Amino acid sequence: LRLPRRSPAMVFHLIEGGTNVQIEEQRFTLAEADTCCAPGYTAVTLANASSKAPAFLFIADETPLHTKLGVFEVRD
Questions:
Q1: Angle at Cα 11 formed by Cα 21 and Cα 51, nearest 5°?
Q2: CB 13: neighbour CB atoms within 10 A?
């Protein structure tokens, strides 16, 4: 899953399973209960680490704040 480059920063928290996260050129492997973040305007790609088991990932971002301030932007 390739996410669009957006102005808000994002926080990823893996609830169950395993996920490979690529933020620009950096690659991370998340296991259950791991958390990582990506600054705004960065390219993010998410991939399930397993071909058989699902991965459940919670994503939080600053979209409501950016929208309220009128600075929300999507680039791609």
A1: 30
A2: 16
